[in-house]
Amino acid sequence: MSGHVLIVDDDAGTGRLLALLVRQLGHNAAFVDNGIKALAYLDAHHPDLVILDLMMPDIDGLEVLKQVRRNPQTAHLPVIIFSALADPQFSQKAMTSGATDYWVKASVDFHHLGERLEAYLPAS
What we know:
By secondary structure, the protein is an alpha/beta fold.
């Protein structure tokens, strides 16, 4: 059984690349480019995991995360913050806001993405 991942990133190149890599690992992946679309997607679909950028226009990742945690339908959902911000203050704030994990974009080795996702997704 494969997992279903929602990727939320205002950088379309990053989001599409991540979605492609997740699909190559045998999982379903959807990509949206802002927080408003992410919340609408979550209302209509039931992914197993959300990979969420922090810095986005309109609704930033922390606000999306807070809304996900307040909604009983999505409160249990693993949410990985995937951000360019390496500052420990940001990761601490994300974790105390309910993030499941915090990945710094520059430190994620895409060759080992499958191993990193394994803890959060059903096996493919």
